[in-house]
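If your schedule permits, I should be very grateful for your opinion on a structural question. The matter concerns a single protein, recorded as an amino acid sequence and a row of backbone structure tokens. Could you please explain, in whatever detail you think fit, how the structure tokens follow from the sequence? I set the record out below, with my sincere thanks for your time.

——
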Amino acid sequence: MPAAGGKSVALASLFMAVAAAAFPARCAPASSLADTGLDAGYRCLYNLEFDRAHEVFRDWNRLHPQDPLAPASDAAAYLFSELDRLHVLQSELFVDDEKFEHRKRLTPDEHVRAAFETALEQAESLSRRILAQSPGDANALFADVLAFGLRADYTALIEKRNFASLRYMKSGRMLAERLLSLDPSYYDAYLAIGVENYILSLRPAPVRWLLRAGGAETDKREGIEKLQLTADKGHYLQPYARLLLAVSAMRDKDFVRTQELLAGLARQFPHNPLYRRELDRLRSKMAAARSSSADGNAHQSR
């Protein structure tokens, strides 16, 4: 059972990771993200340029001190810089169940953890204040969805506390559903629902039954549909939805679809070496599969 909760957040580590206006230089290759608000910071984050992302998010925070998305996004930069430092952001961890289930508990940087918690607490405090006055505020609701996802990622991938992580993920999904009931066009929020449904659907039937009994959602088709909505129409999380779909395709051994998605991400975020590395690994697999198939055909023709 621990593996069920843990792997669900493994892909969710690709989940809420990401989200200002002042540094378009290296952080702004051709992108579908608009040049407004927090977008430049998200581009830095997708390019693994974490120091620049912090600058953007903090500048936006100074200009807009009541916006909870600024500190929530800053927390995302802390989390993903730590995941990058610890070499967590690699596809084998998310595709190979055995590797994930036997992963080691990691040793976090305590300074980064403290900064991560401080940023999340600031975001949550701001969103509570806003929602007390305006319960339907979409920006504040999404900041809370993001915060739940980030906490889920940290507890699963760094602290290896799978059940605690699953609770955070479930809370984020429920809040995303609330946000979407108020604004169905808030396409980034569909990611939270898609991740829970898709990843938990991979578990054996008895485990899925127990998860559903606890309020989790475990429908694979629903999960893919929601991820596709964010991939097609999302904003801050659109590239991450595409990455999740690539991981899904890789698990299904649909290497052509995987290659198409990863190549698009590599073009969009050229400073992120992970996409190119995954593409090289995938192409090696495809070449090996073709060679094996050719050898098999030659053997049968003898």
In short: The CA atoms of residues 134 and 205 lie 41 Å apart. Residues 1-26, 28-35, 204-217 have pLDDT under 50 and may be disordered. The domain at 2-291 is CATH 1.25.40.10 (Serine Threonine Protein Phosphatase 5, Tetratricopeptide repeat). The chain is about 70% helix and 0% strand.
